[in-house]
């Protein structure tokens, strides 16, 4: 059997979204928007645009959105000052969390969270499982800590400015930026 040089086999794509990170980015990237009832919506609006863009650009076979929970994680148990200097989340952003979860549900994107763990932990676990199952994994976050997960078959896209200016990190991009393999 002869194959054309133009025939390219592609692996199915798994997109893993860091929900809190993208919602946070969207909140600060967009001017304040509210419904007629006063419900803040700027972060959800930006988040929606990011999800739609991901769907259009990457045409994922599977998508999951991981969320942080509010109770302490195993990191807090090991180091009491973990994230101790972080500012309190603005109430207008907190109010949009449930809306973003509803949006994911409406799009058929399973929302994942686990007591004692952060979204990063869930994403790292799913990235390894997805790669092992034969998926090309794309992690979507505003958190550059996720670059430690980059390897063949696992890339990270992160926002550079606002919500639409993004960069995709594969191994070469990580090496070019940080000099690390």
SSE arrangement:
Elements: E1 13-18, H1 19-29, H2 42-58, E2 62-66, H3 74-78, H4 91-94, H5 97-107, E3 111-112, H6 119-132, E4 136-141, E5 154-161, E6 165-169, H7 171-178
Parallel strand pairs: 1-2, 1-4, 2-3, 4-5
Antiparallel strand pairs: 5-6
Describe this protein's structure.
The chain is an alpha/beta fold. The chain has seven helices and six strands; from the N terminus they run βααβαααβαβββα. Strands 3-2-1-4-5-6 form a six-stranded mixed beta sheet. A hairpin with a 3-residue loop joins strand 5 and strand 6 (165-169). Helix 2 runs parallel beside helix 5 (97-107).
- Rg over CA atoms, rounded to whole Å, is 18 Å
Query: How far apart, in Å, are the first and last alpha carbons?
Result: 38 Å
Low-confidence stretches: 1-8
Provide the structure class.
alpha/beta
Enumerate the strands of the largest sheet in spatial order, edge to edge or round the barrel. 3-2-1-4-5-6
Could you tell me the number of beta strands? 6
What is the H/E string?
EHHEHHHEHEEEH
Helical segment count: 7
Mean pLDDT: 86
Principal-axis shape equals globular
Q: Please report which band the strand proportion falls in: under 5%, 5-15%, 15-25%, 25-35%, 35-45% or over 45%.
A: 15-25%
What kind of sheet is the major sheet? 6 strands, mixed
Helix fraction bin: 25-40%
């Amino acid at each position: 059997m002869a194959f054309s040089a133009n025939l390219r086999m592609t692996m199915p794509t798994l997109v893993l979204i860091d929900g809190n990170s993208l919602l946070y980015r969207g909140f600060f990237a967009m001017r304040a928007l509210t419904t007629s009832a006063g419900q803040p919506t700027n972060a959800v609006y930006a988040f929606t645009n990011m999800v739609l863009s991901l769907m259009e650009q990457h045409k994922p076979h599977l998508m999951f959105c991981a969320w942080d929970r509010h109770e302490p994680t195993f990191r807090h148990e090991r180091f009491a000052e973990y994230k101790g200097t972080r500012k309190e989340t603005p109430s207008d952003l907190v109010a949009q969390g449930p809306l973003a979860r509803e949006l994911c549900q409406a799009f058929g994107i399973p929302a994942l969270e686990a007591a004692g763990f952060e979204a990063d932990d869930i994403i790292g676990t799913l990235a390894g499982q997805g790669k092992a199952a034969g998926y090309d994994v794309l992690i979507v976050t505003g958190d550059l800590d996720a670059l430690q997960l980059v390897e063949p078959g696992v890339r990270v896209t992160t926002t550079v400015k606002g919500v639409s200016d993004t960069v995709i990190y594969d191994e070469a991009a990580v090496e070019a930026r940080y000099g690390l393999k």
